[in-house]
Amino acid sequence: MNKIAMSLFVLWCFSQPTSAEPLAPLTLDQVLPAALRAFPGLLSTEQRKQVAEGEYQSAEGGFDTQLKTKNRWSVAGIYENQMNDVSIEQPTALWGTTFFGGWRRGDGDYPVYEGKSQTANDGEVRLGVNIPLWRNREIDSRRAKLQQAELGKLIASHEYDQALLELRRLASLRYWDWVLAGQRLKVADRLLQIAEQRDAGIRERAAAGDIADFEALDNQRAILERRERRVAAQRLLEQSAIQLSLYWRDTDGQPQLPGLELLPDDFPAQEPALDINLPQALQTAQNQRPELKRLTLQKRQTETELALQNNQRAPGVDVSVMGAKDMGYSNQKINRDELYLGLNVDIPLQQRVAGGRAQSAAANLQRLKWDLQLQEDRINNEIKDAISAIHAARQRVMLSRQQWRAAEKLQQGEQSRFELGESTLLFVNLREIANGDAALMAAEAQSQLFKAHAEYQAALGTPIQLTETLTQ
Q1: Which residues make Cβ contacts (< 8 Å) with residue 210, sequence separation at least 6?
Q2: Do 232 and 176 belong to one domain?
Q3: Nearest to 413 by CA among 427, 400, 399
Q4: How many domains is the chain partitioned into structurally?
Q5: Which of 216, 211, 221 is nearest to 199 (CA)?
Q6: Are residues 236 and 186 in the same domain?
Q7: DSSP character string of 342-376
Q8: Crossing angle of helices 425-460/141-197, nearest 10°?
Q9: Are residues 115 and 149 in the same domain?
Q10: Theoretical Cys-Cys bridge with 361: which of 36, 306, 384, 463, CB 3.0 to 4.6 Å?
């Protein structure tokens, strides 16, 4: 759709006549459930939880049972034989212990130096265990990945909670911007209507010589100026409605453009109930904000990585025990029962891989500690700023209402003086503009008050009851 068509569509939406039965005004309690149900950004963040679930399942795969087979046939040469070997291996989280077992069968002629390959008719079964004594005992890559993946699921959940809080905050801000834009248009309409209604009377008085002709010209100028103000207010309302439609969506998830008929008459008479206690609010935010929980879990992930890499710098010392038994008949001399003890030692001489990874993990851990401290400071500042904004907005609401009442009385008095011939239209226009500006200041103060409440709620990290919200 090109820009002209889009503009026509927007104007059409705002110019539609209201139905016979007036629609109920759109409330914030209607906008929030729609945003939480179908906002694409939130749905995108929700997929991170699925990604984390997949990564956890992948980490669990490190402990999957492994089944292996080896088969060999001698097809040419002095010795004709065949070898079949099936083995099974089961890693565990118990000190990194691995259990293994298998069955093999060697049949045919073997040279003397390969006599071990010969088995009885029914083959040889074996069972054993490998136990790390140093490296990979306290932690290994399998257990580390599983721990990190489990923490990753919690991190994804906190990221989703953070997206919920941010969505509620932005939807609330855009809603109050829309309500304020509606009040701005209402003031512009009232000022324009006043100037247009008195135009005929002023022309008659000018024609009768009761007032100067330039008074009629001045009123024409005022009408043009106020029409321009109304156009600007209409544009601001359309812009705020378009921005609000990003959050107010229908059941199919498509943005809905709120029309004039859905605008509330005014801001709510009462602000949300709030008992502000700064120390308690700071502590609540530190306990509830998902950013802090996410950083704490990321710190634990990095601590797991550091522990793993420090462990990998140690020598590998593994002890193994395996028993084997031949089954069936054999006409050759074959060991029927065998028991093997093994000790494997693996010493990294330079340790550059594990050392470098440990250095990187230690640096990341320190970085996360500073990030966590900075986030705590930012949250404390957000709480203080939100409380300050609420107090200031309350004072502005009270003072702006007083100023509006005074401006309205002055306008009425100036209008009476003009009708008696004791004033000019210039002063009447100034009083009317001052009254309109005072009305806008009162509306802006109320908007700032409700927006400050939204900021405070987000700063506290108040959890959202998603199920209850979506069923409203």
Answers
A1: 421
A2: yes
A3: 427
A4: 2
A5: 216
A6: yes
A7: EEEEE--SS-HHHHHHHHHHHHHHHHHHHHHHHHH
A8: 160
A9: no
A10: 306
Model pTM above 0.85: no
Cα–Cα distance between 283 and 373 in angstroms, integer?
Answer: 15
The SS3 of residue 351 is coil
What is the structure's pLDDT at 261? Answer: 92
DSSP assignment of 158-178: HHHHHHHHHHHHHHHHHHHHH
SS3 133: coil
Structure token pair of residue 137: 């005992």
Question: b/e string for 188-219 if b means 16 or more Cβ within 10 A?
Answer: beebbebbeebeeebbebbeeeebeeebbebb
Same domain, 217 and 268: yes
Helix axis angle for 425-460 and 213-245, nearest 10°, is 10
CA 365 to chain centre: 23
Q: What are phi and psi of 226, to 5 degrees?
A: -75, -30
pLDDT score at 368: 95
Whether residue 309 lies inside any domain: the answer is: no
Q: For position 327, what pLDDT does the model report?
A: 79
Question: What's the burial of 250, exposed, middle or buried (CB within 10 Å: 0-12/13-18/19+)?
Answer: exposed
Residue 288 lies in a domain: yes
Asked whether the CA dihedral 242, 243, 248, 252 is positive or negative, the reply is positive
Max CA separation in the chain (angstroms): 141
CB within 8 Å of 372: residues ≥ 6 apart: 292, 295, 296, 299
Residues of the chain with pLDDT under 70: 1-22, 115, 330-336, 465-472
What are the tens digits of pLDDT across the range 410-442? 988 988 888 787 877 888 888 889 989 999 999
Q: Which two tokens stand for residue 282?
A: 């700071």
Q: Which domain holds residue 113?
A: 66-131+317-354
3-state secondary structure of 174: helix
CATH number for the domain spanning 399: value is 1.20.1600.10
One domain, residues 323 and 406: no
Roughly what angle, to the nearest 10 degrees, separates helices 141-197 and 40-60?
A: 180
- Residue 117 and residue 211 in one domain: no
The CA distance from 235 to 76, in Å, is 90
Tokens 């959890």, located at residue? 463
